[in-house]
Amino acid sequence: MSEIEELVRNHQAESSRDAPPTIGIRWGIRHYFLINSTLGALFITFIRALGPEQVASAPPGSGGLGSDKSLPELLVLGILTGNCVGFACLGIGKWLRARWAHLQPEQRTLLYFMSFGGAGIIGAVIPLTLADVLQERGASILVLVIGVVAAAVSVNIMVIEEMRERLGEYYRDVQHRERVERDLRTARMVQNAMLPSDIPDLPAVQIAARSLPAKEVGGDYFDFIPLPDGRCLFAVADVAGKGLPAALLMSALRAGLRTLADESADLPEMTARLNRLILASSDKFNYITFVLGVLDPETRRFSYVNAGHNPPLHFKSDGNVVEQDPGDLVLGVMPDIEYHAKELLLEPGEVLAIYTDGMIEQHGLGDADFGLVRLIGVIEAHAASGVKVALDRTYKAVSDFTGDGDQYDDQTMVLIVIEPS
Q1: What CA–CA distance (Å, rounded) separates 247 from 78?
Q2: For the segment 218-273, what is each residue's pLDDT rounded down to a tens digit?
Q3: CB of 314 within 8 A of CB of 344?
Q4: Mean pLDDT of the chain
Q5: Residue 10: which pLDDT band, with cuts at 50, 70 and 90?
Q6: Given this model, what pLDDT does residue 179 score?
Q7: Of the four, 29, 210, 226, 284, which is 20 to 30 A from 110 by CA?
């Protein structure tokens, strides 16, 4: 199993773990009915128990509330009252929550209390009117007490329900962020696995390369592919954008390049075929700048095609630095583009630098860019110390220039040095 396959399999196993149970309990109509019936029956019976005992000689209705009714009648009255009050508050609560969601919690609580109190009073009046007990002593007080109690209970239930929903949303957001972070970590590991881990060992040639993404995953890419005849294929690319979409398009470029490298070493033809591949794999807003080259260590000739990428820098032995001519159109914009190969002769001691625009467009203090002049100066100052030192010093210079600011774009550079004879 390859490293990439193992990373993907581990990610799938981690993602398939059972998620923790969802917060909250689903309430149905039967639950509300049972709770309302129980509370209503207990409340009416309790109020009846506080009233004076009916005197046998007293006329009906002269005693306490419902004193002329039997216990079963009181229970039925309590069940009816409890459900009228409970479902009245439930209905108005669902209606109000959708319309008062924009208010502050303190405002909603006050309005809830007033609304539920009114709903409780109306819900209590209906069954008590039907039972013909509103004329009895204490009925008005009972109605007010029921309204206040219904308002207090309903407001607490509403607040608890809102808290439960907020906790549920927070929990889902946490789960979503964890999944995204896990996906990005896996994508980063997969992307790192796609970059070459070993630098090719070419006679009298020193090579150093590095790619530093601006986010968890980036759109920059470099590769080395040794060819059977002893030459080596070099590739440096910059996918438009950053993050996961750019990384996916970069993976398509890498797969296509690896396939074509086994079929043909004709650089213009390979680049044209890669252009058609990227055009079919992306939308019109995505494109790739690309440099594809072949170095022959025996002749020290570097042939390359530039598809809209930053021109390579040729540090010549006489001290001059030549920025190569602009190349052809980027990949993924138009079909049937004709690409042209160019050739450089690298003398002993000379340096070739291929880089992405994140190296020179990185912002520093005052929103200034690092720039091409600074890049050339750092490479010139440290090229004699070795290719790895020159690469390290270049990245350090860009980092120091950035200061406490964020990395603006993915940063990739490949340095090729011909050893002095």
Answers
A1: 67
A2: 778 899 999 988 999 999 999 887 666 777 788 889 989 999 987 777 899 999 99
A3: yes
A4: 77
A5: low
A6: 77
A7: 29
User: How is residue 312 written in tokens?
Assistant: 């390579």
Judge if pTM exceeds 0.70: no
Cα–Cα distance, 44 to 25 (Å, whole number): 29
User: What pLDDT sits at residue 25?
Assistant: 43
Longest dimension (CA), the chain: 131
Provide the 3-class DSSP secondary structure of residue 350.
Answer: coil
Distance from C-alpha of 96 to C-alpha of 101, rounded to nearest angstrom: 8
- 158, 163, 164, 166: CA torsion to nearest 10: 130
* Dihedral sign for Cα atoms in the order 396, 398, 402, 406: negative
- Ordered by where they begin, the domains of the chain are 8-174 (no CATH), 195-418 (3.60.40.10)
Which of 191, 208, 292, 291 minimizes the C-alpha distance to 251? 191
pLDDT above 70 (res 117): no
Handedness of CA 385, 386, 388, 391 (dihedral sign): positive
**Cα–Cα distance, 407 to 136 (Å, whole number):** 80
Sort 366 into a burial class: Cβ within 10 Å, 0-12 / 13-18 / 19+: exposed
Would you say how long the chain is, in residues? 421
Rounded CA separation 412/234 (Å): 13
Nearest to 260 by CA among 279, 274, 280: 274
The type of residue at 390 is A
Over residues 319-341, mean pLDDT: 91
Q: What is the pLDDT of residue 74?
A: 64
What single-letter amino acid sits at 311?
A: P
Copy the structure tokens of residue 69. Answer: 């009714």
| Overall average pLDDT of the 273-279 stretch | 92
